[in-house]
C-alpha cells in the first residue's frame, strides 16, 4: 500500500468557515506538482483557487462540484503513484469480466418475419421444449462465435420449431385490450400537472447571498438616518468630457464616478465624523475610532451577488489613479477574484444605483462603516440656472449614516458640500492643505502673547 496524505480544506481567513467547490482542476489519477491549483472554491466573499501542498498522485477527491465543505474536512487524498492501489482498481474489472463470461448469452435478434402465432399463445408442448432447449444452446454457440446462423432450420426461442409457411405471411388482428393510455412524451409545459406548475422553487442559501444576508441583519441593528440632495452636475460632466480628451488620460477612462470618489475623499478631512466608526468593547464600553486613511468601498453587482471591495488609501490617489483603481476593482470583483482582505476594513462606501435606471434610494450601511453614499442616475431635467429655467443634468445623492456617530447636521453639511463641489468642480482647488501659511519661531513668539487665554480652535473652510 502506498503512502497517502490527506489534504483538508484550509482556513482561508477572514472568519470563513466553509467553501463551495465550484470546479475541480484535477481528477483522480492525475499527477500534480507543488502549489498546482487543485480546485476553485467559492467562499462567502470571493472565488479562491486552492493550491496543492503536496506533489504526488491524486488518489481520491472527497467532494463533488457544488458541495459545501467545512474548514478542516478532507478535500483531496494524495498518493505517490506506486503500491497496491492499482491492483485494487483492477479487481472490480476482473470480477466484472468473470460475471460476463458466466452469464448466459442473450438470444440473437432474428431478422425473419414475425410468426403468425400471437404473443399470447399457450405454452408449447413438451416435445417442443426439448427442441427449444436445443435451439437456445445452438443460438448461444453461434453468438459465441461472433455470428448468427441463418439456416432454414433456425428456431425462435419460446415458440418451438418454425412452422412451414405457404405464401406471404399474414398478421392476425389483435383484440382490443383495456390498458391505461401510454404516457405522452415531449408534450411541453401545457401537459404538466397543475401541481407541478404551481410548486414552490427552493434554493439553499449559500456563499455571497448568505454573507449579504448576515451583513444586512447586522446593519439593521444600527440606528441609521438618510438625507437626500439633488444637484446640477452639468459642469462636472463637461469636465469629464474634457478630461477624456486630454493626452494624459488617453489610456484611462475617467467617468463621473471617478470625480465623485475624488470629491468624497477630498471632503473627508473637513468632515472626519463620516469616516469614524462606533466600536463596542467588553463591559459595554464604546469607542469612536477614526482611520488615518480612507478605504473607499465600492458596491459591485456580480453574477454571484453584491460584493463591496474597497480601495485602500483612496485619499492618496490622483484622479487618474482613482480611475485605474475603480476599473481594476470592478474587473476583479466581477471575475470573483477579489482578495478576502479587500472585502473588510472599509471606512465608507459608494453605491451607484443610477446605472440601473433609478433616481435614488436609501442604502443600508455596510457593517463596520458609518456612512454610505447612494448615487442616482443622471437625468436631463428643467432646472433653475443663472435666474432662468434650462435643461440641465441633475443627480440625486442619498447619504445614510450611523446616527450614533454622525449627527444630522454633520451628515447634511457633508452632503451639501459634496453637492456644491459637483455643481461647480472648480471649487476643488480649495480642497486640501492648510488655510494659513506656516510661521517661523520668531513670528510665533511675537503672536503668542496675544493668543494666550483665547480659544484657538480653527475649522477648515468648507466648500
CATH superfamily of the domain at 210-432: Chloramphenicol acetyltransferase-like domain
Can you tell me the CATH architecture of the domain at 210-432? 2-Layer Sandwich
Q: Which structural class best describes the helix and strand composition?
A: alpha+beta
Radius of gyration: 39 Å
What is the arithmetic mean of pLDDT? 77
Distance between the termini: 76 Å
Assign a percent range to the helix content: 25-40%
- Which ranges are low-confidence, i.e. pLDDT below 50, for 5 or more consecutive residues? 82-104, 110-163, 449-463
Report the β-strand fraction as a percent range. 15-25%
Shape: elongated
Do you know the CATH topology of the domain at 210-432? Chloramphenicol Acetyltransferase
Total count of helical runs of at least 4 residues? 9
Q: Topology as H/E string?
A: EEEEEEEEHHHHEHHEEEEEEHEEEEHH
**Sheet with the most strands, sense and barrel status:** 7 strands, mixed
DSSP E strands, number: 19
> Class of the domain at 210-432 in CATH?
Alpha Beta
Biased composition (Basic residues): 163-174
Pfam family, one: 2-oxoacid_dh
Cofactor: (R)-lipoate
Domain Lipoyl-binding: 4-79
Amino acid at each position: 500500500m502506498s503512502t497517502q496524505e490527506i489534504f483538508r480544506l484550509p482556513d482561508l481567513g477572514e472568519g470563513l468557515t466553509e467553501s463551495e467547490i465550484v470546479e475541480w482542476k484535477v481528477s483522480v489519477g492525475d499527477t500534480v506538482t507543488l502549489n498546482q491549483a487543485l480546485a476553485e472554491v467559492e467562499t462567502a466573499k470571493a472565488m479562491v483557487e486552492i493550491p496543492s501542498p503536496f506533489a504526488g498522485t491524486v488518489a481520491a477527491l472527497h467532494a463533488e462540484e457544488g458541495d459545501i465543505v467545512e474548514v478542516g474536512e478532507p478535500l483531496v487524498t494524495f498518493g505517490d503513484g506506486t503500491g497496491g492501489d492499482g491492483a485494487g482498481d483492477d479487481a472490480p474489472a476482473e470480477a466484472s469480466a468473470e460475471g460476463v463470461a458466466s452469464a448466459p448469452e442473450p438470444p440473437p435478434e432474428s431478422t425473419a418475419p414475425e410468426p403468425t402465432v400471437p404473443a399470447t399463445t399457450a405454452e408449447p408442448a413438451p416435445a417442443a421444449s426439448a427442441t427449444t432447449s436445443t435451439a437456445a444452446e445452438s443460438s448461444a454457440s453461434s453468438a459465441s462465435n461472433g455470428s448468427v446462423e441463418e439456416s432454414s432450420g433456425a428456431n425462435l426461442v419460446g415458440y418451438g420449431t418454425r412452422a412451414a409457411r405457404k405464401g406471404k405471411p399474414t398478421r392476425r388482428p389483435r383484440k382490443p385490450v383495456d390498458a391505461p393510455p401510454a404516457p405522452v412524451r415531449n408534450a411541453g409545459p401545457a401537459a404538466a400537472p397543475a401541481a407541478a406548475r404551481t410548486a414552490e422553487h427552493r434554493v439553499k442559501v449559500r456563499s455571497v447571498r448568505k454573507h449579504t444576508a448576515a451583513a444586512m441583519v447586522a446593519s439593521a441593528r444600527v440606528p441609521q438616518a438618510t438625507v437626500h440632495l439633488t444637484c446640477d452636475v452639468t459642469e462636472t460632466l463637461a469636465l469629464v468630457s474634457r478630461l477624456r480628451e486630454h493626452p494624459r488620460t488617453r489610456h484611462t477612462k475617467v467617468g463621473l464616478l471617478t470625480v465623485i470618489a475624488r470629491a468624497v475623499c477630498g471632503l473627508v478631512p473637513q468632515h472626519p465624523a463620516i469616516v469614524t466608526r462606533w466600536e463596542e468593547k467588553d463591559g459595554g464600553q464604546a469607542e469612536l475610532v477614526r482611520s488615518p486613511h480612507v478605504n473607499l468601498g465600492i458596491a459591485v453587482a456580480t453574477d454571484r451577488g453584491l460584493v463591496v471591495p474597497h480601495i485602500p488609501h483612496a485619499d492618496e490617489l490622483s484622479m487618474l489613479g482613482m480611475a485605474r483603481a475603480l476599473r481594476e476593482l470592478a474587473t476583479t470583483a466581477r471575475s470573483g477574484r477579489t482578495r478576502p482582505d479587500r472585502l473588510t476594513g472599509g471606512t465608507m462606501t459608494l453605491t451607484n444605483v443610477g446605472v440601473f435606471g433609478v433616481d435614488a434610494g436609501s442604502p443600508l450601511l455596510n457593517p463596520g462603516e458609518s456612512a454610505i453614499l447612494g448615487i442616482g442616475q443622471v437625468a436631463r431635467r428643467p432646472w433653475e440656472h443663472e435666474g432662468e429655467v434650462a435643461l440641465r443634468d441633475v443627480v440625486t445623492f442619498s447619504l445614510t449614516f450611523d446616527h450614533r456617530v454622525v449627527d444630522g447636521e454633520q451628515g447634511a453639511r457633508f452632503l451639501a458640500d459634496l453637492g456644491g463641489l459637483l455643481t461647480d468642480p472648480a471649487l476643488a482647488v480649495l480642497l486640501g492643505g492648510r488655510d494659513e501659511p506656516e510661521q517661523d519661531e520668531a513670528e510665533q513668539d511675537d503672536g503668542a502673547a496675544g493668543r494666550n487665554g483665547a480659544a484657538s480652535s480653527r475649522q477648515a473652510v468648507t466648500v
